[in-house]
Amino acid sequence: MDYAKEALRLHKEWQGKLETVAKMKIETRDDLSLAYTPGVAAPCLEIEKDKSQSYVYTGRGHTIAVISDGSAVLGLGNIGPEAGMPVMEGKCVLFKALGGLDAVPLCLNTQDTDELVNIIAALEPSFGGINLEDIAAPRCFEIEKRLQERMNIPVFHDDQHGTAIVVCSALVNALRLVKKENPTIVINGAGSAGCAIARLILDLELGNVILVDRQGILVEGMNLTSGQEELLSRLNKEHKEGDLSEALKGADVFIGVSAGHIVSKEMITSMNEKAIVLPMANPIPEIEPEDAKEAGAYIVGTGRSDHPNQINNVLAFPGIFKGALDAQATQINDAMKKAAVYAIASMVDEKELCPEHIIVSALDKRVVPIVAKAVKQAAIDSGVIRKWDKE
């Protein structure tokens, strides 16, 4: 199938992938009076007395805002808010289809950090959570941090944390299969996703991380972003220097969140036996899966659905937000992210685990309930549940 041609035809036919559907019919005068004036005043007054009732009398408790400034849309770059809208609509469709959550796409016509923070923070009374999407690094780090400090609902930059959670789930299972402890893990691409993956791998103590970008292996003295600076002291315990080819010599794992076809067969051959290779650049991976296999990779996973071991954010964000909203969590913290990692990993049991199956399918109907349950429990256990009487 020519996906580009067919997607253009269908998007033109749909004129948007979302519509507003009313839960009640307006057919009589009583219907109108109950849905709107005068009846609507009653829930308004209840919420005025007790803000927690906004989760009872409105759709806030099951509604997410999917927000972008259009500055880093998929692999397309800074294409602007209008051009980013089809992606945000698609994300909202996935929230509904997979997680049963309502979601609203909002593309904002500014790339000013202060303005974005102020606009998004002002939306809090309308939503149960905020999914930040396709905002360029390093601005995305500051925006998320400031919003988390300012808002009392979950704020989650999926390009960072959703990617990291699913990568770590795949990595947990891959390491279980190859039986490697404290492996050397090379991540190529040190933007928002690469930094988040590195941080979560280190927090989970899965191995020694070497982070690489266009400058080479990240070391002291380089021109680094704030996100990279925060990680530097925890990286590269082997004190390697040089480019990606140097980083991969004797490495056990390669994770790519960078650009297509920048890894050669020779680089894969230089890795240790039973190498785990996860080239996730889309639509063109850092190395083609068949080339990686021919060069000696034992396990290969990509971001694509037409190869085994698809590593896709859709495994994470619907269940994470559902769990957070079910718990009325005020944030999505590290404990909840770790719970999601192991919940996703748990869905591939010992009998199923093999080089071609280290991660569950995104279409597996078990995913959202299992992830949501684990995330909700982690929110409760870590004490980030909303306490309305103390606000």
Q: How would you describe this structure to a colleague?
A:
This protein has 391 residues and is of the alpha/beta class. 42% of the residues lie in helices and 12% in strands. The chain contains 16 helices and ten strands. It has a six-stranded mixed sheet with strand order 7-6-5-8-9-10. It has a four-stranded parallel sheet with strand order 2-1-3-4. A hairpin with a 2-residue loop joins strand 6 and strand 7. Helix 14 crosses helix 16 and helix 15 runs antiparallel to helix 16. The longest helix is centred in the middle third of the chain and has 21 residues. The protein starts with a helix and ends in a 10-residue tail after the last helix. The relative contact order is 0.10. The model has no long low-confidence stretch (mean pLDDT 95).
Enumerate the strands of the largest sheet in spatial order, edge to edge or round the barrel: 7-6-5-8-9-10
Radius of gyration, in Å, reads 22 Å
Question: Strand content of the residues, in percent?
Answer: 5-15%
Distance from N terminus to C terminus (CA atoms, Å) equals 54 Å
> Helicity range of the residues?
40-55%
Assign an overall shape. Answer: globular
Which series of helices and strands comes N to C? HHHHEHEHEHEHEHEEHHEHEHEHHH
Number of distinct helices: 16
Strand tally is 10
Main sheet summary: 6 strands, mixed
- Average pLDDT, rounded to a whole number, is 95
Regions with little confidence, pLDDT below 50 for 5+ residues: none
Looking at this protein, list some descriptive labels:
single chain, 391 residues, alpha/beta, six-stranded mixed sheet, four-stranded parallel sheet, 10 strands, globular
